[in-house]
Amino acid sequence: MDRRQFLKWGSFITVSVATTGLAACGGSDDNPASSPTSNTPPATGTGPGTTPQAFSFAHGVASGDPKPDSVMLWTRVNGANGTETVNVTLQVSATKDFATLLVNDVHQVVPDWDYTLRTKVASLTASTTYYYRYIVNGVTSITGRTRTAPAPGTPVSQLKFAFMTCQDWSVNHWGGMAELAAMDLDFVIHMGDYIYESVGASFQTGKAEASHTALTLPNGTRLADNSVYATTLADYRYLYKTYRTDPRLQALHAAFPVISIWDDHEFSDDCWQDHQTYTITDDQTEQVSRRRSANQAWFEFMPADVSLDLGNPSFQNIQIYRQFQFGDLATLVMTDERLYRADHVIPESVAGSEIGSRYFVPKTALDAASALKQTNAGGALTPVSMLGDTQRAWWKSAMSNATTKWKLWGNEVSLLRMKVDGTASIIGSITASLLAAGGATGNTALENAVKAAVTADLTAGKANPAYPTLPWTTLGNLLVNTLGLLDQNEFDNEWAPSLNQGLPPRNLLDSFILNADMWDGYNAERNDLMAHLKGNAIGNVVALTGDIHAFFAGVVMDDHDAGTPAPVMVDLVSAGVSSNSFWSFLKQVVDFNPSFAAVRPLVYTTPISAVINTLNDTLKTNNPTTVKYADTDAQGYAVVALTPASLTCTFHKMGKLVNGAAPATATASMQSIQVLADVTPAVTVVPS
């Protein structure tokens, strides 16, 4: 083994050092190679004393974590016997024809790491495109292309990159990946949910393209609804290997370096630390072995420049939060918002279900629970933190020390405030129904009078122990005595009981947070991070976000609950590549949970039998200072053009499946969002 190759066995990362160019007949000291320009590149064979086998690179090649002088390269050898090591040659060149090799090294792949090979190639030149390939027993992989980052401080006029998230094998299609692979990009950011640990879950009920056959986990654990979730290392490896058989995902990885972070489904849906949340008591039991298996599989299959310590017996045996710099234009900070986060502020066991804990959480109860946890911790953020104390300090330092024009935050879950005022919504719904029943729709004066009466009665009624049996005194007086539209007996015996029958549970007559698994559920820490940005005058900060299966663009405030909140940064949220939409999830809630039937109009209406999405307007109306753009029923990805003057993000919304296949043109529509540098944080929805 020569100086260009050595192994870090602790986490199995091999390292190759690029030279200024190897001679055509040159090779590593381990296995001299024949001419690298031949159409049948040199064989490397298996380890000593083994029998040649039918090897292939069935899962493609990949690169990631581009830095000015290095990049991570990845492949997996298929066809090994599961017990012996295999020698693989890695070749790197600055030209497609591999006429001159910068790297021509032999590396070992071993069964302990599922025959994956992760190589850090060092001593590269900044802002340079490289090509790479692997060879085993005369079999050559496809050629991958990667690119190093510009050196720190180097003037950069533009970066173009994509960010994506939530690629469920079992739902919809992956046509967008083929589009991305054909673009001219510097790199791709993956915000997590690269795999889905669940098979046959209720949120995976949508149709999938025919090429994505049904998944069958080697082991798995079955839930009461008959779905199965990955439990063992073999399960997680199976998912990554299956996902990587898709030729479009392979093409994407072969085309650009990908900077990846995980979210929840790489381990478990809506997880925190090593706790799962499938049932209301699940998270009371630690799942150390399962979490460690998920960590290892992610490490094995992602070309990320991180280390995994299998000698560390804890589940926190890997650190994936890290940062990148691209010349003088952008700093990219990638965070881990699962491995260190505290339990949901209102645990599922307290709420009785995920409703009231993670979804549709009464804001007053959430705020009170958060304040109590902080008080009990002496004011510390630890029990209400998503990042954890160490990572939070690191994040602040990275933001403070960034010298680039833009500070980009690879952020798994949305920072935008997404609340709904249930009282106001119910008032509006009742008022509209009364006016329609009386044939007075469009009478503004009467509408205002009825709305004021309903508001008075409902506001008082929330505190009435007899709720939802209310007298509706103010409304009755208006309709009976002031307007003379009804007699008292008719109102008391018909109208009032009908109104009471339609009232929702008391907790919905409050402002409630739609998703407390996001930053809305960790508001104290969000305020602390925003205070750091504001107090240190750190501008041009934009979060690139995933998870929620919808497109959003908006502004993050220093304190969303302040009387006059100040904008601090921007959050841009991409829909999932294929996962079922946020709107479809909420539609299921209001359709099948009787407690939420009363707020159904906030999610959708059905005039003339058509289903109309009202959630987009509900979120924008209830969060006017933050949510500026919303498409809650979408799949797709985002492409960013970044210059010193502006950031333009284009959301690509996917078309639907056509006869079980991705449409010929995957993108059905596009919407661009612009953010200007050096001004008060704001987003502009560019007219289509």
Helix segment count? 14
Rg calculated over all Cα atoms? 28 Å
Uncertain stretches of 5 or more adjacent residues: 1-10, 24-50
Instruction: Write the CATH architecture name of the largest domain.
Output: 4-Layer Sandwich
As laid out across the biggest beta sheet, the strand order is: 1-2-7-4-3-16-12-11-29-30-31-32
Based on helices, strands and strand pairing, what is the structural class?
alpha+beta
CATH topology label of the largest domain: Purple Acid Phosphatase, chain A, domain 2
Beta strands, count? 32
Work out the strand percent. 15-25%
In terms of topology, how is this protein built?
Layout: E1 5-8, E2 13-17, E3 61-67, E4 70-76, E5 86-93, E6 101-109, E7 116-122, E8 129-136, E9 139-140, E10 144-147, E11 159-164, H1 175-181, E12 187-190, E13 198-199, E14 221-222, E15 228-229, H2 233-243, H3 247-255, E16 257-260, H4 288-301, E17 322-326, E18 330-334, H5 348-351, E19 359-362, H6 363-376, H7 389-401, E20 406-411, E21 419-421, H8 422-437, H9 444-461, H10 473-482, H11 488-501, E22 511-515, H12 523-535, E23 541-545, E24 551-557, E25 567-573, H13 582-592, E26 604-605, E27 612-613, H14 615-622, E28 627-631, E29 636-642, E30 646-654, E31 667-676, E32 684-685
Parallel strand pairs: 2-7, 3-16, 11-12, 12-16, 18-20, 20-23, 23-25
Antiparallel strand pairs: 1-2, 3-4, 4-7, 5-6, 5-8, 8-9, 8-10, 11-29, 13-15, 14-15, 17-18, 19-22, 21-22, 24-25, 24-28, 26-27, 29-30, 30-31, 31-32
Helix pairs in contact: 1-3, 2-4, 8-9, 9-10, 10-11
